[in-house]
Amino acid sequence: MLIFSTFLTFAFVSLAGDPRQNLLANPRFSQDSYDRLAHTYHLDASIPVRYWYWVQDVFTHKLGRSLLTSQAIWPDLTRVMGHTVQVIGLAEIIALVLGIAVGIFSAVKQYSIFDYLFTSVSFLGFAMPTFWLALLLQILFVDIYLKWNVRIFYTSGLNSGVASNTWSLDRLQHIALPVATLAIISFALYSRYMRAAMLDVISTDYIRTARAKGLPEWLVIMRHVFRNALIPIVTITALNLGGLLGGAIVTETVFSIDGMGFYFITKLGQLDVYAVMAYLAVTAAIIILFNLIADILYGYLDPRIRYD
Amino acid sequence: MPDPILSIRDLVVEFKTEDGVVHAVDGISYDVFPGETLGIVGESGSGKSVSTLSILGLIPQPPGRVASGTAMFKGKDLLKLKKRELRSFRGDEVAMIFQDPMTSLNPVLKIGFQLGEAIKTHYPKQPNAKVKERVIDLLRLVGVPNPDSRYDNYPHEFSGGMRQRAMIAMGIANSPSLLIADEPTTALDVTIQAQVLEVLKTVQQETNAATILITHDLGIVAELCDRVLVMYAGRIVESGDVHTIFQNPRHPYTIGLMDSLPKLTEDEEWLRPIPGQPPSLINRPPGCAFHPRCFLSQGRLRCREEVPSLRAVDGGRDHYAACHFAEELVGHHSKFSEPVAGGVA
User: Fold this and answer.
1) Which of A204, A217, A304 sits opposite B103 (nearest CB)?
2) Which of B81, B84, B54, B56 is nearest to B66 (CA)?
3) Any idea what DSSP says for residue A65?
4) Under a CB-based contact definition with an 8 Å cutoff, are residues B96 and A219 in contact?
5) Does domain B6-225 have CATH number 1.10.150.20?
6) Under CATH, domain A77-301 is a member of which superfamily?
7) Which residue among A7, A26, A121, B168 is least crowded, i.e. fewest CB within 10 A of its CB?
8) Superfamily for the B231-344 domain
């Protein structure tokens, strides 16, 4: 899987254009050195051969060096990954906690005002394009700053002063809006799925059995309904991680955050094949890892699933 | 006769649907006496399950609603209790066994835990070790082999019959004085049915609980019940002790039910079904709900205009039927009128 998909993307990115093309604009750059460059970086070889060179680089040189800057990719990638993990991790936690809580309440109080309110909110979240929501939030907080001169949240970057990779109030003020953007969209998804899963379980026979035992309603919900309803949510969460990483590309670009998405879109624009490939390989690995975690969680939540 | 343990009067249960109000149970009254087994029979949709589920507050509300009636249990009207008070009865004094053991146990919790939960809910101060001991005893009582190791099994590791045994164990966990079994054998194979019925019998003797047995299987009624209620379209059409009902039925519907069963001792080419379909409970036929399918009615005006009340008939002691012309059935024997009803199952 991993080999096939990386080869395919490698071929496509390589064929998209020649990363040397900007150099030709420089009149002092000779055709000779231009050709030599191609040879040094194996740009004159065929795609399968170049792919093979890349695979060797991945294992021997930690994903190799950038084609444009000749800098090692790995340190760059770990730096941006740290930032993205902060943003996505926080967004995911907020979305999951709120989504599950709202999903439970909506299902228990089906067709109540609360339920209708959050149904509307969720559909708004579904319908809203990420970039537009991001821009709206930016405008809102820029306006607040301009009108009242209060700085609640920053609208771009990661830190106001010197960059540091630790948690701080300043960092939180910076990532609050991108986190909110990603969280709102995932929240919409989780709360709807949780509600539907809860309702499915509530109408089953074994919930009637639990009630017939005389269990208090909150125990019926938390002990019997909740655990069964969580099973589909695990799938959705694992699947949605890809969506979040994709959403990060847009969000990080809008908020100028030095994260994976921003890194990817910049390098793609420069046709820096190796950097793009490094991003894709790492992303693919993360998604595969989380699907594995989801599968393991299944076995824990649902005793009918066993791995032998 | 002793005082009834459960006494239901004029119970009306309705369900609001998009097509109109479904009158699932329409003014039924009955008593259950200590230690007896009362069978409620009728076809699907006759209101037999709803009539018992509703008194425990176990029908989905909305759309369901108990419109009127009383259900006196140990001096309290179950229908007027607060949710909390009603809950303290459920699973303790009054326990239920449900139809489909495949879906009635929570798939992600261990059998032992689910049984223990029934005890813990009502006796939270019981130490866990004692609850476990009791659960294992219960599993042994209902005939689950190796109850010690089965305690830690999940429902999917049990067969259908074993699950129903576990359900029965759950029902009797707190030695209820009233046990309601809602079609306990319907979802099982015939051989397993027989075993589960044996377990039910044992359990009844052991706990001496009054039992309401809801079923559409007359064979089970003949085997287990002391008295029978026959329900049709949300009303009781006939009630009496089991021998009377089988020997001297006084309602055309009851006769129809019995005639539609095969009998082992006779060589029959065809079964004799009741003609027509069960009525819609939204637009019930006026008068006697059974009149469009009745062999006795034959277009008589009274059947179409007047709802027959449940009245004493001369078939036997405490024998009631809701038919204007019940007397015409004197001497009309069902297939099972003769000597005993033993060969039914």
Assistant:
1) A204
2) B54
3) B
4) no
5) no
6) MetI-like (1.10.3720.10)
7) A26
8) P-loop containing nucleotide triphosphate hydrolases (3.40.50.300)
pLDDT at B339 over 70: no
Task: Name every chain A residue with its beta carbon within 8 A of the beta carbon of B121.
Answer: 213-216, 219
Which tokens go with B17?
């649907």
CA distance B343 to B336: 9
> Cα(A25)–Cα(A28) distance, rounded to whole angstroms?
9
Position A252: which residue type? E
Q: What single letter denotes the amino acid at residue A176?
A: A
**Binary contact (A206, B105; C-beta < 8 A):** yes
B156: contact with A, CB 8 A cutoff: yes
C-alpha span between B63 and B234 (Å, rounded): 17
Omega before B147 within 30 of 0, i.e. cis:
no
**Structure-block tokens of residue A90:** 């926080």
pLDDT tens digits along B267-325: 777 777 787 788 887 888 888 888 888 887 777 778 888 888 888 887 567 888 888 88
Other C-beta atoms closer than 10 Å to the C-beta of B92 total: 20
The CA–CA distances, whole Å, from B90 to A121, B7, B66, B86 equal 39, 17, 17, 6
As for the ipTM of the complex, it is 0.81
Contact assignment for A216 to B87 by CB distance below 8 Å? yes
Distance CA B318, CA B335 (A): 22
B213-228 average pLDDT score: 86
Q: Are B120 and A215 in contact (CB under 8 A)?
A: no
Residue with tokens 């969280």: A183
User: Which residue from A206, A208, A302 is facing B58, i.e. has the nearest CB?
Assistant: A208
Higher pLDDT, B330 or B148: B148
Q: With CA atoms as reference, report the closest residue to B83 among A46, A211, A49.
A: A211
Most distant pair of Cα atoms in chain B: their distance:
67
Q: Is the pTM of this model over 0.80?
A: no
With CA atoms as reference, the chain B residue closest to A229 would be B108
Q: What is the mean pLDDT of residues A76-96?
A: 86
pLDDT tens per residue across span B90-133: 888 888 888 887 888 888 888 889 988 888 888 888 888 888 88
Strand-pairing partners, residue B25, are: B13
Distances from the Cα of A175 to the Cα of A94, A138, A152, A159, angstroms: 13, 12, 12, 9
Residue A133 to residues A95, A181, B107, Cα–Cα distance (Å): 16, 6, 41
The reply to whether omega before B339 is within 30° of 0 (cis) is no
Considering only the beta carbons, identify the residue of A211, A216, A303 that sits closest to B108: A303
pLDDT averaged over chain B? 82
Residues of A in contact with B116 (CB under 8 A): none
Instruction: Output the CA angle B23-B3-B317, nearest 5 degrees.
Output: 75
Q: What is the spatial distance between Cα A91 and Cα A76, in angstroms, rounded to a whole number?
A: 23
Q: Minimal Cα–Cα distance from A118 to chain B, Å? A: 22
Q: Could you tell me where in chain A the CATH 1.10.3720.10 domains are found? A: 77-301
CA nearest B54 in A: which residue?
A212
Residue B286 near residue B306, CB atoms below 8 Å: no
Q: How many residues does chain A have?
A: 308
Q: Does B58 touch chain A (CB under 8 A)?
A: yes
Q: CB–CB of A212 and B87 under 8 A? A: no
**Residue B345: both structure tokens together:** 């199952």
